Structure formats: C-alpha cells, structure tokens
Amino acid sequence: MMFRLSRTSPIPLHTQLLNELRHAILSGKLKPHEQLPGEYALISQLRISRSTIQRAWQTAQDEGLIYRVPAKGTFVSEPAQRPTTTRFVSCIMAEFRYTFDGSLLDGADELLRAKGYRLLFAQSERRIEEENRLIRSMCAEGVAGILLWPVMENNSKRFVSDPSCSVPVVLLDRPIPDVSLPCITSQNYEGGLQAMQHLLALGHRDIAFAAWPPLDLHPIAERIRGYREAMVEAGLTPRPILTLGEPLEAVNYRRYEREAHEDVAYLADVLRRPDRPTAIFAMNDLLAVLVLRAARAAGLQLPADLSVIGFDDLELTRRTEPTLTTVAQDTPVIGREAVRRLLSLIDGDPPRRTFTLVPTRLIVRESTSTPPVRSGSGERR
User: Fold this and answer.
1) What's the predicted TM-score (pTM) here?
2) Radius of gyration (Cα) for the chain, nearest Å?
3) Which CATH architecture has domain 188-329?
4) FRET partner for 200 with CA separation of 20 to 30 A, picked from 27, 145, 294, 365?
5) In the chain, where does the domain assigned CATH 3.40.50.2300 lie?
6) 156-178 pLDDT, tens per residue?
7) At how many degrees (to 10) do helices 39-46 and 50-62 cross?
8) How many beta carbons lie within 10 A of that of residue 180, not counting itself?
C-alpha cells in the first residue's frame, strides 16, 4: 500500500507515517499477519530516511500494532495481541496549517498519552463530504472519541449531527449552529479588545479591520465585535470591514503563497488613498503579513505611516519586517482543554452546547507605533 505524507505539514514525517499505519490497521485495510513494505521500498516511495521509518515502526510495535520476524520482515499483529489498555482518539481538522495546528495537537497528545490514549489525526481538506467520511471511518475503527475542527458548511449535511454518530465529539475553534456539542476556542472577543486597546492607547483613531469572508464565522465575528465595540466606546465610527478575496476556508497555504498578490494589490490600492487608515487590525497573522507587503507596495514606511496588528502569533510573525505585533492564542491549552472535555464525555457526561474560552494575550513587536500626523489636506505625514 502507499502511505500519504505531506512535506508542508507542521506534523513530523515519522508521526505522519505512524498515523497512516494506525489508520490502515484499525480500519482493516491492512489485515492481521500482512507484511508491511520493507524499509528500502518505503525510502524509495516516500523519499524519507531510514530513521524516520524506524521511529514510526518502533512506536507501532510498542502499541502492539505490528511485530517483527528476524530476517523476514514486519507484519500486522492480531487484534488479540494488541494491549487492551491502548485506546485511540481522533483529531479531524479542516487543514493542517503552520505552527498553530502543530502546537494544538502537541497539547492534545501530551494529555492523551498521560491518560493512556494515542492520537490519530486526519484532515478533511476543507470538504464536508470528506469530514463526514472520516467521522464514519473513525466510528468504524472504534475510536474512543473525536476532536473535530469543522469545515465551514451548512450543518444540514453533517454526519456529526446524525443520531447514528455515537462517538463523543468535542469541537475545536468554532461551533456548529444548532448542534449541541461542546466547543473549545479562544477568547476572540477579548482578543479583539486587546488589539484595539493597544492601537487606541498609541493614539490611533482611524483604524480598519481586514478579513477574508465569511465574516460570520464565529472566531472572526467575535474579533470584529471587539473591534467595533472598542471604536464605539472610544467615541469613534468603525470603518466598513475591508473584505478580501476568497472565503477563508479556501485560503490554504499553497494558494496563499501562489495567489496572494491579488489581495496585496487590493490592499495597496486602499493604502494609496488620502483617506487611508492609520492602523489595520487583520483577522489573523497571514492576512497581517499581506498588509505589510501591501504597505511597502504603496510606498509606506512601517510602522511610521501604518501600524499593523495580527491574531494567532504564528512563528512567521517573528521573521517579518518589521516583526508583527499580534494577539496570541494559547493553542497547547486549547488542545489540552479539548481533551479534558472529551475524556469527561467518554466517562459518561452528557454532551451539551457549551463554550470553553481560552485567554489570549497581546504580543507587542515592531509593527505598531504612534500614528502619523495628519496635515490639513487630509494627507498623513
């Protein structure tokens, strides 16, 4: 069989390989006593090192999923040979992105291992059909529970809301309308206030909020609410939201790298206008980086002519020029809190539509400063 690995994922290759092997065995694609491909075949097919294969295989052997026969090879164990103490929890995400998702999975995995569970992960590639297929597959594989980062779709087609979905589920980042499941997310509203209070304290009075649609996605809507309420509280009129390009769920890393010039061009046009804002609060760090690029394209000095603040605190925020002020989400804590809630459901607690809000914190770097002086003509200097 062919294992699928991604070199753009934040998940280490040996962990991806182990995860693929677990899925293949637990789903029955690999049968008991079936021989696995040899190391040299995998090195050739997957372009990975021998040590990567050995790390994955050793963990699988420790979990009782495979066994080795000297001079013959590696084989799938009988279910009866697997330790009954090893149970699995699945994490299904719309897409693996950057350090954000990696640290969330690290937080979840740390607590699961301490409780005797192992973490399976998969991505739905932002498609509701794939999300439904994965949930059905995980249920058939006998996982103890599911952590779900749902795709942005109408919930009428969701298997997770079907009564036949009997596995406990906890949502990550965003709730699903009309579905009574617990959700673990950040304090997005409070984070929005933190960003705005920082800009207002610097003296900014003309602040814009930039976002990819849909604007009613819960985390984004809460950040927008923080933006608008802070402006009104300061006696200011919020600007219309600077809405760009394709829906957020379509903005994966490859598209972001390949096609971001369209969003940069639009933002640069806005920033060339005499009535441009003195600061932009971007819905996330990826968009904030595009704002930085657009400002340079418009001939602005950063942060003298424009202050920029993001949301997430991705690793790339430390490498931008200037380094990016942002609101940090505590993703390892989100992962651990989600696991705690899931374990309580596994132990028999009834599922309820609840929110657990994890605090955010402001990280001040070089991309924000006092606003430029506005001349009588409306130009900023």
Assistant:
1) 0.82
2) 24
3) 3-Layer(aba) Sandwich (3.40)
4) 294
5) 188-329
6) 577 777 767 789 999 999 888 87
7) 120
8) 12
